[in-house]
# Entry
Amino acid sequence: DAGVTQSPTHLIKTRGQQVTLRCSPKSGHDTVSWYQQALGQGPQFIFQYYEEEERQRGNFPDRFSGHQFPNYSSELNVNALLLGDSALYLCASSLGRTGNQPQHFGDGTRLSIL
Amino acid sequence: GIQVEQSPPDLILQEGANSTLRCNFSDSVNNLQWFHQNPWGQLINLFYIPSGTKQNGRLSATTVATERYSLLYISSSQTTDSGVYFCAFQYNFNKFYFGSGTKLNVKP
# Structure
């Protein structure tokens, strides 16, 4: 039973560039959430996708966007990268959007902005 | 706004010691999870515990939803327990709020 998988594991970009991160949910899960974790802090909720639509959003600018595909996998896109976007980006999957199921996390993508 | 407070922020233990980590949350909960983040950044599920008490080996957790807190107990700590422990409080349909974590260092 495959868990949540994320790619790539590491990524280096420069300011102003655009990046796409990918996530495959745990088998049987249909909901994907994305989090940003800066060094020394807890993860911060970016947004959640369910039924191919963004259902919830945290306090992140429109430079952060996403997509969910029919197979429930998801992408996180960040445009016009800033130095402050350097962080560990975590994807979590769960079953349904009712809020009574645990979330399972992938190993994350470490994004460094130069 | 929604707040999740964890204490203590840092904890140093000698191998074999016991500890209690606390998580206070500011609103009614429909989900609460405890995670262990290892030095490689992997977030490992420990407990899904919106209420009640659960045990898994040397770890146990209790959530008292009416009083808005949760406790994680670690008994007979081992060096492999080192890392950061997060509680994540779920409010309003899958919008998770994480605490700032407790950094645990278990010395041999």
